Amino acid sequence: MRHLMSPLDFSVEELDEIMDLANDIEANPKKYAHACEGKKLATLFYEPSTRTRLSHEAAMLNLGGSVLGFSSADSSSASKGESVSDTIQMISCYADICAMRHPKEGAPMVACEHSSIPIINAGDGGHQHPTQTLTDLLTIRSMKGRLDNLVIGLCGDLKFGRTVHSLIHALVRYENVKFVLISPEELRLPSYMREDVLDKKHVPYKEVVRLEDALPELDLLYMTRVQKERFFNEEDYVRMKDFYILDKKKMALAPDDMLVLHPLPRVNEISTEVDSDPRAAYFKQAQYGVYVREALILTLLGIQVDQ
Amino acid sequence: MRHLMSPLDFSVEELDEIMDLANDIEANPKKYAHACEGKKLATLFYEPSTRTRLSHEAAMLNLGGSVLGFSSADSSSASKGESVSDTIQMISCYADICAMRHPKEGAPMVACEHSSIPIINAGDGGHQHPTQTLTDLLTIRSMKGRLDNLVIGLCGDLKFGRTVHSLIHALVRYENVKFVLISPEELRLPSYMREDVLDKKHVPYKEVVRLEDALPELDLLYMTRVQKERFFNEEDYVRMKDFYILDKKKMALAPDDMLVLHPLPRVNEISTEVDSDPRAAYFKQAQYGVYVREALILTLLGIQVDQ
Amino acid sequence: MRHLMSPLDFSVEELDEIMDLANDIEANPKKYAHACEGKKLATLFYEPSTRTRLSHEAAMLNLGGSVLGFSSADSSSASKGESVSDTIQMISCYADICAMRHPKEGAPMVACEHSSIPIINAGDGGHQHPTQTLTDLLTIRSMKGRLDNLVIGLCGDLKFGRTVHSLIHALVRYENVKFVLISPEELRLPSYMREDVLDKKHVPYKEVVRLEDALPELDLLYMTRVQKERFFNEEDYVRMKDFYILDKKKMALAPDDMLVLHPLPRVNEISTEVDSDPRAAYFKQAQYGVYVREALILTLLGIQVDQ
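Structure tokens for the assembled complex are given below, as produced in the milestone run.
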């Protein structure tokens, strides 16, 4: 039995298979409409996350399965002091597969050790959020046609943003990938990412402070939010916040085929005027997020649909 | 693509078709049991409303579809500052139709502008609650056999009650309808309703303070709650509250074929001793609420079931 | 129409039929996979209980039915002052069967009087929790092969534990059952249970303070939690708490075929080192809880599945 704890749990070849499957689901949804009939997904969300929960639920429903679970810890046995390992042993009696979100790093890993059903880590604190990374990879591969030979801009909070770290881990496995790291000094990519991941794998990167300076050379731009409270002082925040807001004017500097991705929800780091730009891919990302989760559920359950 | 924002979004003829469909669903539920197979309803409830949420969910399940969503804003991305227009663009990837309840007037209308799926306004603040009005119309038409030639008593809080305002808007489109407005002075129907709707359309009405005075001439009585906090002073409330409580004694004054409706939940404005009276229609209303929502979902999704 | 309010609502013969059905469901799940197609279960949880709610939902989904409801009172009409009897009349329009949990003793009974659908009491305050008792009985019958001729140890809080009281009520109906009551003086089984139930039915029992003293003679041990706040003073708690923690060392004193049950969630009254002991039946109990609820739903809905 396999789980999904980190995007690196799958080899590049296995990821290719999952993405091929996701693209086939996109092209032939009806073929998969009954693939999980009689199967149940448990969504155990110890902290709320509408988007992540609903995308898993939509995926399971698209496959003809059903869903049960909870959307916050208040309504769970956790409030009675039950351990995650006991909860998962109970849930193993109620469902065939489980998506777990937990504020505590490593909780889904603990669950794996006691589970008799596959577990999908749907986010554990600031640690991992592997289905977001699968979504990002599928979006890039589907819309750019490749995951190698890319110049990738990562913009915003590169220090704390777990989606950015996960995406770097996932992309350095492909050939000829270059990163442009766009952030204020305070929110630079941490040295353990720069040295232990990028340098070690000889992946070229540069760091810039202003989005304008990076845009002209990018194949894709991955935007994230810059939270005010991350800054050391108000002055710095006011001085710099506009550097990291993507608008029409900045989009004019970017190549015609540059994609804009964002894990969502956004607050104001992408102006809504960009939404109608054909390069804006962040809502399509939400759609790819459903397809890739369908492919993941089928893979973890070992269900094959005849061609 | 169509949405339901206000009961006036549909012409009288279109409403008739929806109600015909609802009556056919009532008579032949099995015929529709798989009509929405593979379709998903998203229930986005930014404020809790069990009755409205569950009636939509029951409707979709009766049609063989499935349901996902959230039942309060706490467990939604709204708490992360996401806009309604971003949420609906995401939800458009997850579901085929959406029922939205929002404390802010106009929020579902904003959602429409960005949605690629039909949206049902399931209540926006004190503004609209169109599926309640469809429910009321279907109940009256099914149980009285007509929507014209009626003397309609509206009782209780006519000032703030949005269901009452919506119902008036909907009923003035039918021939020979008369209203008896039963309320304390403080809670009279507002002048913008009396002058701009009733007078303008030459719909006769009278205003009375005591329910007893109105009952003998009514074809139907629509009860609503009179909340203590709406009164200017305690004294007025104590003096008048019993005027607006329907009990067995008052029912004795009413015609044998007068219907009693109530949007529910009731608190004490209808005594439970009235529940067993054959004229009490408020629980049947709940049942009609499911049928009309089934018809609405089919209509908005453009699904036709062969005869 | 029948409801389930107390485990004694069914005769011993009727319980046997339900348990036979549950065992057939266990053996032939596919036979029942569409038995409730088109049927809806409403889960009305006025207080949260993940385990109980999800086990009912899993049961209904296993039967091919669907589920709607609420998981806490906050998101229900109860917060608008609606009575339980009004709520159930509404829910009767939305669903075919209902599982209700309520903090107030007797609430599900009130609901029964106004319901046109079967109601399962899923726990009402400290009063009853009949589906837990059915689960316990099925677990014992399935794993021991009988419900008579048993020496049963009940350990922990025997004063307030409603599952223990319910189980005693249910087991005294079988032949040659003996109880060993294992608890601190403060948490003894109340006299109304000892005198009015055990003595009256001439069921032999003894009371001991230490788990070790009871273990060697037991056919099954039913563990419950001892909550610190139940003790009169800290000193007593510290002195005695270890008496009621089951660990490997204590398990060595027990017969090879003694079963350990626990209604779950546990906190620390069973050491996790016992989990791998073949006599530990508490997680299997969770599985039997699903089967017995499937059998119950079929029975209350009057659905028979051909052999």
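Chain B has a mean pLDDT of 93. The beta strands of chain B are 40-45, 66-70, 97-102, 119-124, 150-155, 177-182, 205-208, 220-223, 259-261. Further analysis is deferred to the final report.
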